[in-house]
Amino acid sequence: MKKWKYLTMTAVMGSALMLGACGSDNSGNNAETNSAANSGQEADDKKLQGSVAGDGSSTVAPIIEAVVEEYAGAQPDVKVSVGVSGTGGGFEKFIAGETDFANASRYIKDEEKAKLDEAGIAYTELALANDGLSVVVNPENDWAKDLTVEQLKQIWTEDGKVKKWSDLDPSWPAEEIIFYSPGTDSGTYDYFDEVILDGADLVSAATLSEDDNMLVQGVAGDKNAIGFFGFAYYLENKDKLNIVKINGVEPTHDTIETGDYLPLSRPLFTYVKNDSIKDNEAAYDFLKYTLENAGDMAEAVGYVRLPDEQYAEGLTTLEGLK
């Protein structure tokens, strides 16, 4: 997120230059000096101390990492720690009371809701951005450019057989398909299972990982590989991957925003613990900062921002939890 660092540095340098110019003006009076000192004191008073903890989706991680990086400049005395154990793993820690928020690339499940209720943890869902789950193949794969949902289901569903590209089209290579998939704790895994596999078992030959970068490396290193993960990870690595159209539609900023990229367009969330917002000023401030900047950060890392009114609604909801 270097470009965000540069923006922050530019703002700081601009402020320093402005203050230097004011300091060189010998005509300033004591009232102006006192006013500047008071303003500086007010700014210091707004500085917070404390800690905030989150965990969850690797898909959401690029957004949150960008937010954390910028927030450190705004509130350097607030320690924000964010793990990436997948949506399911993040909810497990959230249910156990270990975190203030859980990042998710899917909606919370009924069983997770029940466990939170049993634990006495009230929570609130906040939308951050939209994503297009992206199916990718190796750059040497010049045949699987466009797959239907039915073809995806055919090759990714476990049926006890060795899967070959020629199973989809006899003109394609009679070579075994190598599969790379997010792990079972991933919300991306759950979403793919729901909209593509209809709850059937994922092919057992797949290599599973909660680390999307490992999936990227796997697909990039094998001519017969196929994998899937969040759109931002494809954009970051598009020089070593080929994107696959689904039902004739390629995931792009526009097709994700319009909803034309179906059924693999999806919202991304963070779930916040209500008591953390009420009792921990640092947690409230960080989540407020997150919603205020999520749209810009989402666009910067490759996702699609929500309508401004949706972020405004989220901020109103968050304020109501205090």
Automatic annotation (TrEMBL):
Record membrane topology: Lipid-anchor
InterPro entries, per database record: PBP_domain, Phos-bd, Phosphate_ABC_transporter
Keywords for the protein's UniProt record, in alphabetical order: Cell membrane, Lipoprotein, Membrane, Palmitate, Phosphate transport, Signal, Transport
Signal peptide: 1-21
Residue numbers spanned by region Disordered: 30-56
Annotated localization: Cell membrane
Composition bias, Polar residues: 30-41
Keyword Signal in annotation: yes
Entry similarity comment: Belongs to the PstS family.
Assembly: The complex is composed of two ATP-binding proteins (PstB), two transmembrane proteins (PstC and PstA) and a solute-binding protein (PstS).
Full protein name: Phosphate-binding protein
Organism: Lysinibacillus contaminans
